[in-house]
């Protein structure tokens, strides 16, 4: 198929160089989409239907066989050899069961090792005598060691996941997913499915995946290209609202108030604060005639625009036309017959433009927010009855900003600028947005994302138990309200496929304190020996103290024996196949990095693609969310808790770190564990 595209000659089919360039680009994209993936098979399943799909079952007839794969594959004659996993006929591969065979006589799963077909497994769904248990090939694929970025899960999608993936494009779906339930993969595969089922629409309106940080986006960036989808944009919320240069950070109380939904009303008032009512009329001179629009008429026009509550910029553009229309009415009353060209000319009249600008002045969003955060009197005027005086004092900058380029902008301030920009001019909407780790967003951040899908749909992914910001949501209904998608469907995934049962059961002991309303997750994997909890005592000196002096000065006081034991645990973990993650409190990372280097163990930063030579990643706890490793060594849980602003947030951060392991978790500590984990 790729060779056919490469052989296309477009020299005689394009009328001009523009068409030629566009067609050449589309051909290049098609070739890239058809690239070979050495370890990725083209098919992973087979369906033998008892009857041809769509045929009348009462009339009998012969069945039909389909191979299911990641991509549609046809032969030299154009006949299908492999059916795309997103096609309607493929749905039976994921949802058929003994209780509901969906007219499937045989479902076959294929097993691969390094891209080579090595096994197959059959289920005769309509045979009452056959007893089927858990799929060994399915378990092997789920548990396969991972080196490199996140992989697709098309061969292992479960029925409850498939329902979410194939949900209608017109509706927003929120997925509450416990660790290891595959919520991120479900969201990415939903994008791939929607692009397959609604390609023309989404190609026109665009799709976007929003992640919590760049490390996470690097980790997932290969999933969609592996499925042939190359044009899905990725961004963080900070990148979406990057209208001003960030130069500072907020305290937790300040960030919480700036992220509160009440700030939207404060900004609305600020944007409209410059609107004034006229004190005199507007006189328009045309030829020998003078036309006067009285002040009361101008006030009626301004109040009518205010009552319509349209975007500030749209009203600003409409005001000269409204004044011009009032002049045209007077012209008609005097016997003239003006047309649209006359109205446009009147709207451009200097007197009309000056009047409109005085009544409805232009607004620069960044300058407006700068004034709001610098001028206590202006903030008090706009926030009266919305924020208390104490809250107003909390959000004000300690030192007023002198200009947009030099002001002490924070990430929360950038979201306020984005809100103000939308109040002036509507933000463009995409066709579909996937929002991952959504539990950590503030109400104002939800609003910023919601603006990007105001006329489209969204897939919201998250876990309330993993909320690690002081403003993280406790209710998906509240989050969806702020997103502008109230009443959207909420699905809960509680069956884990990646995290071992022993690990998820241990981490779930924290749920009563961090998310009491959530049901504990269960796991299909019950292997014993995947969890080790070890207390390290003593103060043995490190082998190379000189190499660790500088790093030790940055870390909390911890027995050197713990660092030695952690390095030894990492060394032992590297004896296993797959990726290794060493997760530690951010303050402990420099010390551990120096210790690993002194021990001759190379390591990578989060988001960097692992290789067969370097499989160890040193992960600050603040960046662990969304990442997975075959084996995890977790350093000093108490330090992870201490690194957060409050106990609940610290326990939630620890819950995240405890649930990053796919095959084994080794927890080492010198300080007492939380009571729930003791």
Automatic annotation (TrEMBL):
<dbReference type="InterPro" id="IPR027417">
    <property type="entry name" value="P-loop_NTPase"/>
</dbReference>
<dbReference type="InterPro" id="IPR000212">
    <property type="entry name" value="DNA_helicase_UvrD/REP"/>
</dbReference>
<keyword id="KW-0067">ATP-binding</keyword>
<feature type="binding site">
    <location>
        <begin position="177"/>
        <end position="184"/>
    </location>
    <ligand>
        <name>ATP</name>
    </ligand>
</feature>
<dbReference type="GO" id="GO:0016787">
    <property type="term" value="F:hydrolase activity"/>
</dbReference>
<dbReference type="GO" id="GO:0043138">
    <property type="term" value="F:3'-5' DNA helicase activity"/>
</dbReference>
<dbReference type="GO" id="GO:0003677">
    <property type="term" value="F:DNA binding"/>
</dbReference>
<dbReference type="GO" id="GO:0005524">
    <property type="term" value="F:ATP binding"/>
</dbReference>
<dbReference type="GO" id="GO:0000725">
    <property type="term" value="P:recombinational repair"/>
</dbReference>
<keyword id="KW-0547">Nucleotide-binding</keyword>
<keyword id="KW-0347">Helicase</keyword>
<keyword id="KW-0378">Hydrolase</keyword>
<dbReference type="InterPro" id="IPR014016">
    <property type="entry name" value="UvrD-like_ATP-bd"/>
</dbReference>
<dbReference type="GO" id="GO:0005829">
    <property type="term" value="C:cytosol"/>
</dbReference>
<protein>
    <submittedName>
        <fullName>AAA family ATPase</fullName>
    </submittedName>
</protein>
<feature type="domain" description="UvrD-like helicase ATP-binding">
    <location>
        <begin position="156"/>
        <end position="500"/>
    </location>
</feature>
């Amino acid at each position: 198929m790729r060779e056919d595209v490469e052989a296309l000659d477009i020299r005689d089919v394009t009328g001009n160089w523009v068409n030629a360039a566009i067609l050449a680009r589309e051909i290049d994209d098609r070739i890239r989409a058809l690239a070979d993936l050495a370890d990725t098979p083209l098919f992973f399943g087979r369906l033998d239907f008892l009857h041809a799909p769509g045929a009348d079952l009462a009339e009998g007839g012969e069945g039909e066989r389909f191979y299911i794969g990641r991509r549609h594959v046809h032969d030299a004659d154009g006949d299908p050899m492999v059916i795309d996993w997103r096609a309607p006929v493929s749905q039976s591969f994921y949802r058929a069961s003994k209780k509901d065979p969906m007219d499937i006589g045989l479902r076959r799963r294929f097993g691969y090792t390094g891209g080579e077909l090595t096994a197959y497994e059959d289920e005769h769904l309509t045979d009452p005598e056959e007893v089927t248990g858990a799929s060994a090939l399915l378990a092997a694929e789920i548990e396969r060691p991972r080196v490199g970025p996140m992989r697709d899960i098309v061969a292992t999608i479960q029925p409850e996941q498939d329902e979410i993936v194939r949900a209608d494009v017109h509706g927003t779906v929120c997925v509450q997913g416990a660790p290891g339930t595959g919520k991120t993969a479900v969201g990415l595969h939903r994008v791939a499915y929607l692009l397959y089922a609604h390609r023309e629409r989404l190609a026109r309106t665009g799709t976007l995946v929003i992640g919590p940080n760049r490390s996470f986006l690097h980790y997932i960036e290969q999933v969609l290209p592996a499925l042939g989808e190359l044009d899905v944009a990725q961004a963080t919320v900070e990148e979406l609202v990057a209208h001003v240069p960030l130069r500072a950070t907020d305290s937790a109380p300040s960030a919480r108030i700036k992220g509160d939904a009440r700030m939207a009303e404060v900004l609305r008032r600020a944007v409209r604060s410059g609107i004034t009512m006229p004190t005199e009329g507007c006189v328009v001179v045309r030829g020998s005639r003078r036309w006067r629009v009285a002040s009361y008429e101008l006030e009626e026009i301004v109040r009518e625009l205010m009552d319509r509550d349209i975007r500030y910029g749209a009203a600003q553009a409409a005001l000269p036309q409204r004044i011009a229309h009032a002049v045209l009415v007077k012209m008609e009353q005097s016997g003239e017959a003006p047309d649209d060209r006359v109205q446009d000319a009147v709207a451009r009249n200097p007197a009309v433009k000056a009047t409109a600008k005085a009544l409805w002045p232009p607004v620069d969003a960044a300058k407006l927010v700068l004034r709001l955060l610098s001028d206590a009197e202006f903030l008090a005027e706009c926030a009266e009855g919305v924020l208390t005086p104490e809250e107003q004092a909390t959000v004000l900058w300690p030192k007023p900003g002198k200009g947009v380029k030099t002001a002490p902008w924070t990430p929360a301030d950038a979201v306020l600028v984005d809100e103000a920009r939308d109040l002036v001019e509507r933000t463009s909407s995409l066709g579909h947005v996937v929002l991952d780790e959504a539990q950590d967003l503030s109400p104002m951040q939800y609003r910023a994302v919601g603006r990007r899908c105001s006329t489209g749909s969204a897939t919201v992914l998250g876990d309330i138990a993993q909320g690690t910001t002081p403003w993280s949501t406790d209710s998906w209904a509240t989050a969806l309200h702020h997103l502008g998608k109230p009443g959207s469907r909420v699905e809960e995934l509680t069956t884990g496929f990646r995290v071992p049962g022993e690990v998820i059961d241990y981490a779930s002991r924290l749920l009563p304190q961090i998310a009491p309303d959530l049901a504990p997750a269960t796991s299909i994997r019950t292997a014993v020996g995947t969890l080790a909890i070890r207390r390290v005592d003593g103060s043995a000196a490190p082998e190379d103290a000189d190499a660790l002096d500088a790093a030790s000065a940055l870390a909390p006081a911890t027995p050197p024996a713990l660092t030695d034991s952690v390095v030894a645990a990492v060394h032992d973990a590297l004896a296993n196949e797959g990726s290794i993650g060493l997760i530690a409190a951010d303050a402990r990372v420099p010390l551990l990095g120096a210790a690993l280097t002194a021990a001759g163990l190379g390591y990578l930063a989060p988001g960097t693609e692992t290789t067969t030579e370097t499989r160890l990643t040193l992960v600050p706890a603040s960046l662990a969310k969304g990442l997975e490793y075959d084996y995890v060594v977790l350093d000093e849980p108490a330090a992870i808790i201490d690194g957060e602003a409050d106990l609940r947030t610290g326990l939630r951060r620890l819950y995240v770190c405890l649930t990053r392991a796919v095959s084994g978790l080794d927890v080492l500590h010198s300080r007492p564990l939380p009571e729930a984990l003791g």
